[in-house]
């Protein structure tokens, strides 16, 4: 046997450092391959190789470079010289941002001469910033595989069909709105992936792709698909889920080789009978999913469901056995199919502010909506009722998924959620929308199986045969993160199962090596596998307890029980405590506090806790009406954490406010909600004509079970959980001081009333809007201009004296404030009235005069 030549060490000078690369002696590199995308400075290495060993480099047939490399543009100029190149990979996604999401590469175009690579058959430009397809690609005569997924393409060139030899094309995760008619000329195309774009219509020419075996059009905006798809006789798998389809052609059922048809999560009101008869069709998540009636059926038998629309302020509706569609003012939709309720049923609904003592978010959860309560609780429907809930899109959609969570009365659980925030329920309770880490799950049989992450397919869990006697359900979640300055780490892996028994055989876990680490440069003494409990409180180094195997890109180890697993590469020896702190920081949000005063009424103060990246847009939106100090320094808070605002140094607020606890305003921080309150402040001290320079301070309240020391180690003493302080300045009150009016109550104790002090507080907030409010209250111009002499307080008290006997006077006052554009004052009056009702009810209850139940309550209970 002939002995192969020994590889030589090629020293490459790059910048100030010295790099090593291996090359075979002779005229070409090893195996004609050059994989440099695993190196942070791969383009630098390529340029140095091309300079010093050009004769060998131009023979390369397979080349991989990272488009996250800052020297990519320089490297592109040398590519047209590689005339033997068969495969070129210029992918991004080799770096992650601060949220752990893959960063797109720098590639925006290709050199025109790249079209001269006549041998190129495989081109991968995924995870880049292409807005148009480089024209040179259309001149590649041998191109068979083209990947441009995760770019920003809006359209494809009209002559795209020139790539007649192409067999695989992927443009998923772009912004394509239409396809050129020439796509039908790709006669050899076998796999076409156009998922997660913005396609609204397909050209009829798609039906000319006679060799196509898999077509993925999921996640678009398609309302219909052309009948010509029935011509794709080679098609095996057709993915149409998560579109807006209202109809599908029955001719799809005639495709001879079709083995999967996914129509889930569309708007199909009827499914053709021929398609429903297929054993491999998936239609869950559509409004009706009923068999389409035959043409001979009596059209009068097809009944349109009644649609109900409700304005804000309404809180109930009636459902009959005929079913209905309901749309609330807040954007929530319901679908009650015929027969869901056997008898007429009154449905009550209301929107609640999430309370952290009740709404328990899990680690890494993000709240996206308020709580929806539906009554009566526990009533069983005969068919599933669909609920659509609006929500704010999460910032990290790649690693998070949106689910609807429901409360049973004792605990919260996640519902199976279709496409958008839509769920199917058989009974009513409490519902909210959250964003959680993407969850992949499977049933593990005795024969074993494979489970991998959809966030990072390189993360795999392998269950060998005999791993369990009885099938059990397993769930996998992945949290992406970026490495610290002094270490790097893999994605954070969480595994759980529905059984308390450990597996009978070890389960193999594959994790990608940390960024920048490969099997070539790995120092095993620096690699640590950490294991933690469910809450992430304790992190143990189990490296010495498992058998570690390595490939060029992955680490593989075996376990028998599930929890958190984390792969670290660091020079530190004891990292359990460090890992705990890093894990806690993953759950923290960087926020700023703002305190602004209304320009026309400085005693009206707006307080808000704003995520750092939203501060500038929020201030820009408010700058016309408010002024105030610069935002506070950046602090860190948990999702769902409670905090308080306290006014100090001569400034106070109404202590009877429902949200006032021990003299401090109570807030709850949710990263996707406003965390804002507008309140009226005053000074209880005698100003003597001087302005009052006070302040508002923010403090932590109820916090999660654990909190990093660096997040709470602030201002010592009784306010050790102090977060920030901002100044508040009150000018002289002016003519409102010194006014004396007789005792006054508006309304009555049972329905709630306003006292003289309440009216005084409201008067001080009216400001320049007083004339408009006076007109809305029914006063004449003459009264406003002459009798009241433009004195706001006198105006309000004069009106109150005239209407004190009117049982609807408080409602009129609230309506006047709303009509005059002062919703903030109307809300404050509502809060005062509600507090009065509560105090009245409590006093009645204490003296035993409360009725056991009202007629209405009895009726609801009987229902």
UniProtKB/TrEMBL annotation:
Residues 313-437, 438-571 form the ZU5 domain. This is P53-induced death domain protein 1. One of its GO terms (biological process) is signal transduction. Residues 755-833 form the Death domain. It comes from the Eukaryota. InterPro entries: DEATH-like_dom_sf, Death_dom, Leu-rich_rpt, Leu-rich_rpt_typical-subtyp, LRR-SigEffector_domain, LRR_dom_sf, LRR_R13L4/SHOC2-like, ZU5_dom. It holds the Pfam family Death. Keywords: Leucine-rich repeat, Repeat. It comes from Cyanoderma ruficeps. PANTHER family: LEUCINE-RICH REPEAT-CONTAINING (PTHR45752), P53-INDUCED DEATH DOMAIN-CONTAINING PROTEIN 1 (PTHR45752:SF44).
């Amino acid at each position: 046997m002939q002995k192969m030549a020994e590889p030589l060490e090629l020293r490459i000078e790059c910048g100030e450092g010295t790099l090593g690369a291996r090359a075979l002696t002779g005229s070409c590199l090893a195996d004609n391959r050059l994989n440099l995308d695993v190196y942070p400075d791969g383009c630098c290495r390529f340029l140095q190789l091309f300079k010093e060993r050009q004769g060998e480099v131009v023979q390369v047939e397979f080349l991989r470079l990272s488009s996250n490399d800052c020297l990519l543009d320089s490297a592109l100029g040398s590519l047209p010289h590689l005339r033997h190149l068969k495969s070129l990979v210029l992918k991004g996604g080799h770096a992650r941002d601060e949220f752990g999401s893959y960063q797109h590469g720098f590639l925006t175009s290709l050199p025109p001469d790249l079209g001269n690579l006549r041998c190129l058959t495989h081109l991968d430009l995924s995870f880049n910033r292409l807005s148009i397809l480089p024209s040179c690609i259309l001149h590649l005569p041998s191109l068979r595989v083209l990947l441009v997924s995760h770019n920003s393409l809006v359209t494809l060139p009209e002559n795209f069909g020139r790539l007649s030899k192409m067999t695989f094309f992927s443009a998923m995760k772009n912004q394509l709105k239409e396809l050129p008619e020439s796509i039908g000329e790709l006669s050899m195309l076998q796999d076409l992936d156009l998922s997660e774009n913005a396609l609204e219509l397909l050209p009829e020419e798609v039906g000319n792709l006679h060799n196509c075996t898999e077509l993925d059009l999921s996640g678009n905006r398609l309302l219909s698909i052309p009948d010509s798809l029935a011509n794709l006789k080679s098609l095996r798998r057709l993915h149409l889920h998560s579109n807006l389809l209202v109809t599908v052609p029955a001719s799809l059922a005639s495709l001879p080789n079709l083995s999967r048809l996914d129509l889930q999560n569309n708007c199909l009101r009827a499914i053709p009978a021929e398609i429903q008869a297929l054993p491999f069709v998936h239609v869950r998540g559509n409004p009706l999913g009923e068999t389409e009636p035959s043409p001979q059926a009596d059209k009068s038998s097809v009944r349109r469901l009644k649609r109900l629309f409700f304005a804000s302020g309404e809180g109930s509706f009636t459902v009959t056995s005929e079913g209905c569609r309901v749309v609330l003012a807040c954007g929530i939709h319901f679908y009650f199919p015929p027969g869901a309720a056997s008898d007429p049923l009154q449905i009550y609904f209301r929107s609640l502010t999430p309370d952290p003592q009740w709404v328990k978010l899990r680690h890494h959860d993000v709240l996206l909506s308020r709580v929806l309560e539906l009554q009566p609780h526990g009533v069983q429907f005969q068919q599933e009722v669909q609920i659509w809930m609006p929500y704010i899109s999460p910032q990290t959609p790649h690693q998070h998924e949106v689910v609807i969570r429901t409360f049973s009365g004792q605990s919260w659980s996640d519902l199976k959620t279709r496409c958008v925030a839509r769920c199917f329920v058989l009974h009513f309770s409490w519902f909210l929308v959250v964003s959680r880490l993407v969850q992949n799950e499977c049933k593990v049989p005795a024969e074993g199986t494979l489970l991998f992450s959809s966030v990072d397919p390189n993360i795999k869990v392998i269950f060998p045969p005999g791993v369990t006697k009885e099938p059990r359900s397993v769930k996998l979640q992945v949290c992406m993160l970026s490495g610290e300055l002094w270490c790097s780490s893999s994605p954070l892996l969480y595994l759980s199962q529905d059984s308390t028994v450990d597996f009978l055989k070890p389960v193999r876990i594959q994790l990608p090596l940390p960024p920048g680490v490969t099997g070539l440069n790995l120092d095993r003494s620096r690699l640590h596998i950490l294991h933690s409990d469910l809450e992430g409180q304790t992190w143990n180094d189990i490296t010495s307890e498992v058998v570690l195997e390595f490939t060029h890109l992955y680490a593989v180890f075996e376990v028998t029980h599930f929890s958190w697993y984390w792969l670290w590469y660091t020079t530190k020896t004891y990292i359990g405590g460090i890992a705990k702190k890093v894990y806690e920081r993953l759950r923290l949000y960087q926020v700023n506090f703002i305190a602004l005063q209304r320009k026309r009424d400085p005693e009206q103060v707006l307080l808000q806790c704003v995520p750092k990246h939203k501060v500038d847009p929020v201030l820009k939106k408010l700058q016309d009406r408010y002024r105030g100090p610069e935002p506070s320094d950046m602090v860190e808070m948990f999702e769902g954490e409670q905090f308080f605002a306290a006014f100090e140094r001569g400034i106070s607020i109404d202590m009877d406010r429902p949200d006032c606890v021990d003299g401090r305003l109570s807030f709850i921080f949710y990263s996707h909600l406003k965390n804002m309150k507008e309140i009226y402040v005053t000074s209880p001290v005698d100003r003597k004509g001087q302005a009052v320079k006070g302040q508002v301070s923010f403090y932590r309240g109820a916090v999660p079970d654990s909190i990093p020391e660096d997040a709470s180690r602030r201002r010592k003493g009784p306010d050790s959980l102090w977060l920030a302080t901002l100044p508040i300045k009150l000018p002289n009150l002016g003519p409102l001081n010194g006014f004396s009016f007789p005792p006054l109550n508006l309304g009555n104790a049972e329905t709630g009333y306003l006292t003289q002090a309440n009216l005084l507080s409201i008067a001080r907030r009216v400001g320049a809007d007083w004339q408009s409010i006076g007109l809305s209250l029914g006063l004449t111009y003459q009264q406003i201009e002459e009798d009241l002499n433009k004195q706001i307080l006198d105006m309000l008290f004069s009106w109150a004296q005239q209407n004190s006997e009117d049982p609807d006077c408080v409602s009129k006052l609230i309506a006047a404030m709303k009509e005059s554009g002062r919703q903030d004052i109307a809300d404050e009056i509502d809060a005062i009235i509600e507090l009065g009702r509560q105090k009245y009810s409590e006093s009645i209850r204490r003296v035993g005069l409360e009725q056991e139940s009202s007629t209405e309550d009895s009726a609801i209970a009987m229902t």
